[in-house]
Amino acid sequence: MRFIKDLQESDKQELERIVKESSFYRERQRAQAILLSAQGHTMNQLTEIFKVDRDTVGKWFDRFETQNTTGLKDAPGRGRPSKLNAAQKKSI
Fold it and tell me: How many helices (H) and strands (E) does the chain have?
């Protein structure tokens, strides 16, 4: 079983702030998962709560452990590339 252990009080407060204030759903979801893990919820329980694979939860944990709360954000470059070139974007 894998859990997030020994969560610092400052990290806990930052995660709670993200859950309440972030405008990004995925970031809020990941922060909530970290908090629940620190409270003792298993990875299997988290997969049921958030309807994701166990590997996904593991990646959330890995990113949090290596990058702290900045690892909860979506990486740049996600989504469909723009069809507009730089000149078209500037004219808009």
Answer: 5, 0
